[in-house]
Amino acid sequence: MEKIIIEGKSRLKGEVTISGAKNAAVAILPATILINGVCTIENIPDISDIKAYCKILETIGVKINKISKNTLEIDTTKINSIEAPLDLTSKFRASYYLAGALLGRCHHAIIGMPGGCKLGARPMDQHIKAFEALGADVEIEKGKIEVEARKLKGTSIYLDIVSVGATINAMLASVLAEGTTTIENAAKEPHIVDLANFLNKMGANIMGAGTDRIRIQGVKALKKEGTYSVVPDQIEAGTFMLAAVATRGDITIKNCITKHLESITAKIIEMGANVEDIGGDTIRVTANSRPTKVNIKTLPYPGFPTDLQPQMGVVMSIAKGTSVINESIWDSRFQYTEELNRMGAKIMAQGKVAIFEGVDKLVGAPVSATDLRAGAALIIAGIVAEGKTEVLNVEHIDRGYENIEEKFKKLGAKITRVKE
Ligand code: UD1
Question: Does residue 99 have a pLDDT over 60?
Answer without folding.
Answer: yes
